C-alpha cells in the first residue's frame, strides 16, 4: 500500500472524527454546573434553591449551608446529605450529588413540584380513605428508614410532599440520625436551631408534632418517630395538629401533659374514625413504652382498619365486630335481607293457595294411581332394554379389548390379558355383581378356563347368559388360572365337545382362550398341534392332518376348496402350530400367508400349495427354511414376506413332494 | 488504591501512569512503529534490534517530558523520533553509502520540515496499517484485498476486473472496510496520542 495514500486516509479519518461529538465537547466544556439559583426554602442549617443543572439539563433542588454559619456546621450538613443519600426508597427524597462549591458544601436532590401535605389536603379536599393512603406510604418510608437504622425525628406535614399522581415523598431528614451514632455538641446545637421557632420568636411551620422526649432532651429512638406518626395520623383524622396554641411554650406544655381530645371528635364520626383515633392516641402515649413499639405495628392496625376489621387497640365489642363484618360483606347482608323478605312473602302465598288445592286433590289422586300403573309397565320395559344394552356393551367392550390384542405377540398377549383380568377383578370388587362387570368377569373366567368360578358367577348373575355355557357346564372341574394352565388334551377335549360353529361372540371368546393357552410363558405344553387340529375340525375347515409328534412333523392336506370359510377364521389358522416342520398341501383355493402369523416352525414347506397370496410380511418364529414350488414366485417376495434372507428360500418341484 | 474507574483511560496516559499492562501494550505499538520506520529506511536486519532498543529508550524518556500545551503531539512525536533516529543512525552512514534514502535522512542539508513530514507520514501510514490489521479478521472474502488495492491507488474498474467481482461490489466492500478502518484509526489515535 502506498504510504501517501495511507497517510491521506489517516488525515481523513482523524479529521472526520473531530467534530462528531458535539454533546461530549459541550459536556466537557461546562464550567458552572448549577446556575439560576432561586431560594425556595430555608431551615435552621440550610437553604434550598431551585436551580438549573447544566449537565443533566433539568431543574433540581440545591441545598447548601445557610449564609453566615460557621464552617463547624458544615460537618452536620454533609452528614445530613449522606444520611439521606444512604436511604433508597420510593417514598424518600433522592440525593443526586454531594459536593463542595466555593468552599461550601452542597448537595442536590429531586426538585419536587408537589405540594406539602398541608396544602395538598387543603387543595384536593381529600376524603378519609385518600388521606389514609398517603399515611400508608409515609409508614412504608419510615419503616424502611428504621430498618436501615435511620431516624427522622422531624416528621410533620411540611416534610411530606404529595403529587396528583400518587407520589408521596418524605423529605428533610436534617434532624435525623443513625441510631448508633453519638450525638455531639454541634448536633445538639442544631436541634436547638431547628426548633420550630424563627429568629424573630414566632412559631414557624407546623408545631405540635414533636415527641415529649424531644422537648425534654431525653433519649430518642424509633419510638420518637412513632409519636410523630401518631401526631400525623391525628392531623389526618382531624385536620388539625394534635397540639396547638398561641406560642411554643403552650404547645410544649400540651405535649408534655398529653392534653388533647380524641381526633375523631373534631370532625365527627362520619368524616373521621374513632377506631383510628385510638390508634393515634396510643402512638402518642407520653411514655415511649406505652406507644406502638414499631412502625410495623401501626401498619398492621391500619391494614386491619382498611380491610374492615376492628383495630387491636379498640378492643371492639361483639356487636361492633358483627357490624364491621356486615360492612365487609355487603352482598351477603343484602342477600340475607332479600331472602328473608322472599321467604315471608312465599309463606303468605302458600297459606292462601292451600285451601283451593285441597279441593282438587281428590280428582288428582285417582289420575296419579293410573299414571303409576303405566309408569310401572314402562319402567319394566326400560329395565329390559337397559339390561340388553348393558350386555351388549360389556360384550362389545371385552370383545374389543381382546381384538385389540390380536396384533400382539404371544408374550405380550399374556401380559395384556393379565392387565385386562386385573382391571376386571378390580371393577368387580368395586361395583359388585353388576351386570356389565359380571359379564367382563365371566369372559375372564372363560379365557382362563376357570369354569368352576364361571358357573358359580353365572348362577349368581344369571343375566346375561355367557354364550358358551353349554360346554362350560360339561367341564365344571376346569379350574385354571394364570399359573396353573390346562394340558393340551384338556383344551382339545373342550374344543372337541363343541358340535357346531358359534356366533361371533362365542367364537371370539374361544379364540381368546386358545391364544391365552399358547401364550403362557412356561411352555409346559410345548406342542399345540392337537389343539390346532381340533380347532380346525371344529371350524369345519376341510383340512386333514398327519401328525408325528416324535419327529415334530405336521402335514396338513386340504381336501376341498381351501379358504371357503369366512375369512376371519382363515387368518391365524396356523398360529397354534409349534413344530419343527410344517408342510401344507392345498390343491385348490387361495392360501394367505397371514394365516401363518405367530406360528413356531423351523421348516415351512409350501411347495404343495398351489396358489399363495403374499401380502404383508408375517412373523413365523424360529423360521430357518421356506420351501416353495419352483418357478412360481419371485424369491425376493418370499424372503420379504417371511422376513428372512433369500438364501433360506428353497425351490422344489411339486413332483418331488414324496421325498419329504 | 485508585479504582479502575478513576485512572486515565487512554493507553498513553495509563502507560505514563506506570500501569504495567498498558505500558507493555503501548511499548509494543511504538516499537513496531520504529521497526516499520527503520525498515522503510532500509536499515539492515543486523542493526535493527540494537537501534530499536536505543530509540525506544530515548522515546520513553522523552514521552515523560512531553508537555501538551507547547506543541501538538503528532508534531512533537515526529520531531522526537526524527532526532532520535538521526542520532542513533549516524554511525551507519558510512556503512550504507549506497542507501540513498538513508543518506537523505541523515544529511545535514535536509530541511527539518521535510524530515518531520516524512516521519509523520510514516506514523500515519503505520497507524492505518495497524488499524487494518485489527479489522482484517472481521472480513471474509475479497473485502480487505479491495481496500488494499485502493490504498495502492488501483482504480475501481481495474479492481473489479482483477478480483473478478462487479464494480458496485468494489464500492460496497471498499466503503465497508473503510468505515471499520476509520473507526479503528480513531480509536488508536485516542489510545496512542495526546489529543490535539
Q: How do you describe this structure in short?
A:
Chain A has 660 residues and is α/β, with parallel strands linked by helices.
The first-to-last residue Cα distance of chain B is 30 Å
**Total count of strands of chain A:** 18
Mean pLDDT of chain B: 82
Shape of chain A, please? elongated
Helical percentage of chain A: 40-55%
Task: Using the alpha-carbon principal axes, give the shape of chain B.
Answer: globular
The secondary-structure class of chain A comes to alpha/beta
* Pattern of helices and strands of chain B: HHHHHHHHH
Strand content of chain B: under 5%
Low-confidence segments of chain B, ≥5 residues, pLDDT <50? 1-7
Q: How much strand of chain A?
A: 15-25%
CA-based gyration radius of chain B: 19 Å
Major sheet of chain A, described briefly?
6 strands, mixed
Poorly predicted runs of chain A: 194-205, 566-571
Query: How many H/I helices of chain A?
Result: 23
Oligomer: heterodimer
Largest interface: A-B, 15 and 20 residues
Number of domains of chain B: 1
Average pLDDT value of chain A? 77
Largest sheet of chain A, order of strands side by side? 11-12-13-15-17-18
How would you describe this protein?
The complex is a heterodimer of chains A (660) and B (196). Among the domains of chain A are: 1-30, no CATH class; 540-660. Chain A starts with a helix and ends in an 8-residue tail after the last strand. Chain A is built from 23 helices and 18 strands. The longest helix of chain A is centred in the middle third of the chain and has 75 residues, at 330-404. Chain A has 660 residues and is of the alpha/beta class. In chain A, the strands form 5 sheets. Chain A has a 6-stranded mixed sheet, covered by helices on one side. By secondary structure, chain B is mostly helical. Chain B has 9 helices and no strands. In chain B, helix 6 (112-136) crosses helix 9 and helix 7 crosses helix 9. The longest helix of chain B is centred in the C-terminal third of the chain and has 26 residues, at 167-192. Classes of the chains: A alpha/beta (660), B mainly alpha (196). Chain A binds chain B through residues 1-7, 9-14, 16-17, and chain B through 40, 120-122, 124-125, 127-129, 148, 150-153, 178, 181-182, 185-186, 189.
Amino acid at each position: 500500500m502506498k504510504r501517501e495514500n495511507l497517510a491521506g486516509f489517516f488525515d481523513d479519518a482523524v479529521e472526520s472524527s473531530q467534530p462528531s461529538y458535539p454533546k461530549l465537547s459541550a459536556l466537557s466544556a461546562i464550567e458552572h454546573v448549577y446556575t439560576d439559583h432561586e431560594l425556595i426554602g430555608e431551615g435552621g442549617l440550610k437553604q434550598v434553591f431551585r436551580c438549573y443543572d447544566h449537565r443533566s439539563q433539568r431543574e433540581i433542588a440545591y441545598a447548601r449551608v445557610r449564609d453566615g454559619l460557621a464552617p463547624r456546621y458544615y460537618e452536620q450538613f454533609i452528614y445530613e446529605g449522606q444520611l439521606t443519600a444512604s436511604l433508597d426508597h420510593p417514598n424518600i427524597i433522592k440525593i443526586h450529588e454531594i459536593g463542595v462549591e466555593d468552599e461550601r458544601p452542597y448537595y442536590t436532590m429531586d426538585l419536587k413540584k408537589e405540594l406539602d401535605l398541608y396544602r395538598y389536603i387543603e387543595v384536593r379536599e381529600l376524603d378519609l380513605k385518600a388521606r389514609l393512603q398517603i399515611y400508608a406510604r409515609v409508614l412504608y418510608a419510615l419503616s424502611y428508614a428504621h430498618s436501615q437504622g435511620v431516624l427522622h425525628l422531624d416528621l410533620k406535614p411540611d416534610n411530606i410532599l404529595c403529587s396528583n399522581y400518587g407520589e408521596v415523598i418524605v423529605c428533610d431528614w436534617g434532624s435525623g440520625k443513625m441510631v448508633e451514632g453519638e450525638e455531639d455538641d454541634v448536633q445538639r446545637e442544631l436541634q436547638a436551631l431547628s426548633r420550630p421557632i424563627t429568629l424573630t420568636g414566632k412559631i414557624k411551620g407546623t408545631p405540635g408534632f414533636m415527641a415529649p422526649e424531644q422537648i425534654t432532651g431525653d433519649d430518642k429512638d424509633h419510638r420518637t418517630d412513632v409519636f410523630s406518626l401518631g401526631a400525623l395520623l391525628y392531623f389526618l383524622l382531624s385536620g388539625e395538629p394534635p397540639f396547638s396554641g398561641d406560642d411554643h411554650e403552650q404547645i410544649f406544655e400540651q405535649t408534655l401533659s398529653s392534653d388533647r381530645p380524641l381526633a375523631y371528635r373534631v370532625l365527627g364520626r362520619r368524616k373521621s374514625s374513632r377506631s383510628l383515633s385510638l390508634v393515634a392516641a396510643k402512638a402518642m402515649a407520653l411514655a415511649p413504652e406505652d406507644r406502638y413499639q414499631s412502625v410495623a405495628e401501626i401498619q398492621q392496625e391500619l391494614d386491619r382498619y382498611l380491610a374492615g376489621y376492628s383495630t387491636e387497640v379498640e378492643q371492639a365489642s361483639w356487636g361492633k365486630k358483627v357490624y364491621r363484618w356486615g360492612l365487609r360483606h355487603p352482598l351477603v347482608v343484602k342477600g340475607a335481607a332479600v331472602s328473608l323478605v322472599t321467604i315471608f312473602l312465599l309463606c303468605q302465598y302458600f297459606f292462601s293457595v292451600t285451601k283451593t288445592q285441597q279441593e282438587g286433590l281428590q280428582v288428582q289422586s285417582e289420575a296419579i294411581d293410573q299414571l303409576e300403573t303405566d309408569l310401572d309397565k314402562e319402567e319394566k320395559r326400560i329395565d329390559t332394554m337397559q339390561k340388553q344394552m348393558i350386555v351388549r356393551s360389556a360384550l362389545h367392550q371385552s370383545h374389543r379389548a381382546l381384538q385389540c390384542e390380536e396384533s400382539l405377540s404371544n408374550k405380550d398377549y399374556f401380559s395384556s390379558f393379565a392387565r385386562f383380568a386385573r382391571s376386571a377383578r378390580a371393577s368387580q370388587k368395586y361395583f359388585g355383581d353388576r351386570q356389565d362387570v359380571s359379564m367382563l368377569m365371566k369372559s375372564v373366567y372363560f379365557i382362563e378356563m376357570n369354569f368352576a368360578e364361571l358357573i358359580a358367577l353365572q348362577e349368581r348373575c344369571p343375566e346375561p347368559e355367557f354364550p358358551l355355557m353349554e360346554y362350560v357346564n360339561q367341564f365344571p372341574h376346569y379350574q385354571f388360572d394364570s399359573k396353573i394352565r390346562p394340558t393340551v388334551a384338556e383344551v382339545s377335549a373342550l374344543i372337541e365337545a363343541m358340535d357346531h360353529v358359534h356366533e361371533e361372540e362365542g367364537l371370539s371368546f374361544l379364540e381368546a382362550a386358545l391364544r391365552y393357552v399358547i401364550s403362557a410363558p412356561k411352555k409346559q405344553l410345548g406342542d399345540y398341534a392337537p389343539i390346532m387340529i381340533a380347532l380346525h375340525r371344529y371350524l369345519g375347515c376341510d383340512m386333514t392332518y398327519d401328525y408325528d409328534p416324535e419327529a415334530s412333523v405336521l402335514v396338513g392336506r386340504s381336501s376341498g376348496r381351501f379358504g371357503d370359510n369366512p375369512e376371519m377364521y382363515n387368518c391365524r389358522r396356523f398360529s397354534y402350530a409349534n413344530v419343527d416342520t410344517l408342510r401344507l398341501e392345498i390343491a385348490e383355493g387361495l392360501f394367505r400367508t397371514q394365516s401363518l402369523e405367530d406360528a413356531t416352525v423351523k421348516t415351512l414347506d409350501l411347495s404343495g400349495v398351489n396358489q399363495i397370496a403374499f401380502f404383508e410380511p408375517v412373523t413365523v418364529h424360529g423360521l430357518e427354511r421356506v420351501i416353495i414350488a419352483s418357478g412360481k414366485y419371485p424369491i425376493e417376495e418370499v424372503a420379504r414376506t417371511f422376513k428372512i434372507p433369500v438364501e433360506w428360500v428353497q425351490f422344489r418341484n411339486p413332483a418331488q413332494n414324496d421325498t419329504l | 488504591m485508585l479504582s479502575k474507574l478513576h485512572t486515565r483511560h487512554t493507553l498513553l496516559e495509563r502507560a505514563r501512569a506506570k500501569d504495567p499492562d498498558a505500558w507493555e501494550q503501548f511499548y509494543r505499538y511504538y516499537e513496531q512503529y520504529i521497526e516499520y520506520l527503520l525498515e522503510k529506511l532500509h536499515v539492515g536486519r543486523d542493526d535493527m534490534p540494537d537501534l530499536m532498543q536505543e530509540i525506544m529508550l530515548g522515546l520513553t524518556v522523552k514521552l515523560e517530558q512531553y508537555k501538551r500545551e507547547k506543541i501538538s503531539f503528532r508534531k512533537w512525536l515526529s520531531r522526537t523520533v526524527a532526532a532520535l533516529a538521526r542520532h542513533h543512525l549516524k554511525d551507519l552512514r558510512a556503512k550504507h553509502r549506497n542507501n540513498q534514502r538513508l543518506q537523505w535522512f541523515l544529511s545535514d542539508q535536509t530541511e527539518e520540515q521535510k524530515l518531520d513530514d516524512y516521519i509523520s507520514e510514516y506514523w500515519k501510514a503505520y497507524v492505518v496499517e495497524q488499524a487494518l490489521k485489527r479489522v482484517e479478521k472481521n472480513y471474509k472474502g475479497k473485502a480487505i484485498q479491495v481496500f488494499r488495492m485502493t490504498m495502492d491507488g488501483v482504480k475501481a474498474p481495474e479492481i473489479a476486473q482483477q478480483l473478478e467481482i462487479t464494480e458496485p461490489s468494489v464500492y460496497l466492500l471498499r466503503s465497508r472496510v473503510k468505515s471499520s478502518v476509520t473507526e479503528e484509526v480513531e480509536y488508536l489515535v485516542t489510545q496512542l496520542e495526546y489529543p490535539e
